[in-house]
C-alpha cells in the first residue's frame, strides 16, 4: 500500500517534469487525434522522426477508436481541441463546423503547402474535395478509400452449383432466381436434409442491384448505416423509397414464402466477431452472399502474390476463404458478375469511397504557421514516391517493412510486425496518416480488375451527411427496415410499400430530399 | 428422468409444482451458465466455435490462446494497473466511507441530517461527465492512478448502507467502552469495526468488483498505454474487427489484416474475469448477512 502511494507520487512527479520539459521547448506543438488501434507512445518513433523533419513537437491525443466521437466530444467540450483530428463518421462534419471547432482551410494554403495532395484527389477522386466544403468553405480534407471503387462481391458456392447441375455463373436475375431455388430445394450439400437456403440478408443486395438500387446499407451492429441517393428522371431520390424497390420486394416476398430466402435474414449473416465474416455462408446454410469485400473471399492461388525472393507465389486465403477451408477443404467458391434485371438495369452496391474527414482545430485558423506544418505531414502522405509515403504510413523501411516489388507496390511486414497490427499505432504512424486514393497496383487489386469489379458498381450520389438527412436518418431507417421486413415476411401486402413511402416523406423524408436536391444542384453546377 | 420423477413424487409435496420448479431453476442455471461454458470451450479451441455446430467440446483442443494472452505485454501492464487501482481504491474507499459513516450514524452529531441529505443528494443528481473530466484535469490527476480512485472514493449508496448498519449497533456497547477509558478513535477501531465485519466484507467486495470491472474512466482519464487497466485492453482485443467503419480504415492500411481469432478473445475474457470470480466464494458468507442488516432503513 505504502509502495503504491510512493509509486503514485513518483509518477505524478515524473509527469510534472515531462510536461515542464515540453513547455520549456521552443518547438511548436501540434496535437493529433486520428485513427488508432492502440494508444500511441508520446515518444513514438514516427512522431519523433517526423517531428524532427518538420520542426514540430507532435503530441498524441489518444482516443479509443471504438468510442471515438464520444470521447472527442468530451475533450472538445472541456476546451481541448486537437490541432488535427479526424472524423470517424463523415456525417459529423456539419456538426463540428456549426459548433465552431473545425478551422476553415484556405485553398491557397493547400495550393502552397500541399500541391501533391490536391493533385492526388483531383486525379483519382475528382469532386471529393468539394465534399469537405460547408457553405462554400473547406473544413475537411476527405479520406478516400481507393479499394471501395470495387463493388461488393457476388460469391457463389460453386461446388453446390456443380451438384445442382449449373455450370455458368448467373448473369441475369432470372438465371440467379433459378439457381437460388435449386440451392434451396435440390439438397446441394447432399446430406439428405432440407436445410439449405439460397441467400440471406447480404444476398439481397444483388437483387436490389439488378433494379439499379442500393436501398440499405448496414454498417456494423447498431450503427445506422449509410443513406444512398440516386438520380431518377433528373431528380435526387433516396434509394429506399425508389418505386422500383417494390418490384424487388415482391420477388423477395415470394422467395421467403418458398423457403429460398433464409428466414434468419432478419438478424443478418454475421454473428459477431470480425465484421466481414458471413457465418451463414461459411456454415453452409446459404449458397450465395455479397458480404464484405472481394479480397475477403480470395481462395489460395486465385491470383499470384510476390514472394520474398521476387518470384510469384499463390496468394494467401482471405478471411472468409480461410474459415471455409478450415471447415472443409473441398468447398469451392466463385465470384460472379452483377446481375442484369428485368428492366435492363445492371449493377450492385459499392461502399462509399468517402470514408471520413481530416479537420484542423479552430485555433489553427489563426495560426497559418501551424497549418503549414500540419499540411506538410499530410503532403508527405501524398508524395508521388511510393517509398516516401509508405514510410509515413507504416514506419521506417527495412525495420518494419521491406519492399518486394516497386512496380506493383508490394511490400511485406518484417516479423514480428507481420502479426502485430498495433505497432503502427504505438509508434504514431497512424496519427500522421491521411488515406488518399492512389492508383491501385497490387496483385489483389489486379484480380478485382480482372473480375470487372471496378465497373457497374452503383455510385452513391451524395456520400456526405447532409444536415437534414442526418437529423432524421435514424428514424427514417427504422421506418424503412420495419416496412421492408413486414413486406418480405408477408405480414403486410406489397401495396403497403406506398403507405411506407407516405410515412417516410411525412417523417422528414421530404425535407431531407429537398436538402439533398439543393446540395446536388450546387455540386453539379460546378 | 423416471428416477427424478419418482423421487419428487415421494417427497410428498405437490409433485407437479416441484417438477416445474426444478425445471425452471435448471433452465435458469443453464441460460446463465451456458454462455460462460461457451467462452471456456471457445478459449480452448483453435478454430472459431461460432462456425461449428452446437457443441460443449472445443473444435480442436489447444492452449495456444492462453499462451498468447499471457505473452501479451499489454495484458501484464493492464493487470498491474487493475490490481493497483483495486487495492488502493478498495482500501481507501473503506477507510473514508467508514470514517464518514461513523459520526453520521450518531444521533447526537450536530447537523447530521443535513450532512446526510447532502450526500444522498449526489445519488440523484450528478454534474455529468464533462465537469467531472474538467475537475480531474484541473486537479492534474490525468494519467495517474488517482484519477481512477478519487472520483469514486465514496459512493452515497455504500455510505447509506454502512451508516444504517452502524445505527443498529447498540449504544450501550460504546458507552461501556467509554467507561473503560477508550476514546472515540479507539472505540471505532477496537469495538465498532470488529462488529462491522460483515458490512466491511460486503462493501469491500462491491468496491473491489467495481474497480476490477471499470474501464470507462480509464479510457477517459488515462491516455498512455502504460496506465490502462486490463478491462480496457480486453475490450480492445474483443472488439477488434467488429466495427466496420474502423475496419475499413484498417484494411485500407493493411489488406489481409491479422485479426484476433475468436478463441483468443474468449481466452482474454477468461483471464480477466476469473480472478474476481474467485473472490466470491470466500466473501459469500458475509455477503447476505451484510446486505440484509445494512438495507435501507429510516
What characteristics describe this protein?
heterodimer, A: about 525 residues, alpha/beta, D-Maltodextrin-Binding Protein, domain 2, 18 helices, about 15% strand, globular, B: about 300 residues, mainly alpha, MetI-like fold, 15 helices, disordered N terminus
Distance between the termini of chain B: 50 Å
The count of β-strands of chain A is 19
Strand content of chain A: 5-15%
CATH topology of the largest domain in chain B: MetI-like fold
Named CATH topology of the largest domain in chain A: D-Maltodextrin-Binding Protein, domain 2
Q: Which CATH class of the largest domain in chain B applies here?
A: Mainly Alpha
Biggest contact: A-B, 72 and 51 residues
Looking at how many chains there are and whether they match, the oligomeric state comes to: heterodimer
Strand order of the largest sheet of chain A: 2-1-3-16-6
CATH architectural grouping of the largest domain in chain A: 3-Layer(aba) Sandwich
Strand and helix order of chain B: HHHHHHHHHHHHHHH
Number of helices of chain B: 15
Mean pLDDT of chain A: 89
Low-confidence stretches of chain B: 1-6
* Distance from first to last alpha carbon of chain A: 68 Å
Radius of gyration of chain A: 25 Å
Tell me how many strands of chain B there are.
Answer: 0
CATH superfamily of the largest domain in chain B: MetI-like
Q: What characteristic shape of chain B results from the CA principal axes?
A: globular
- Cα-atom Rg of chain B, whole angstroms? 25 Å
Domains of chain A, number: 2
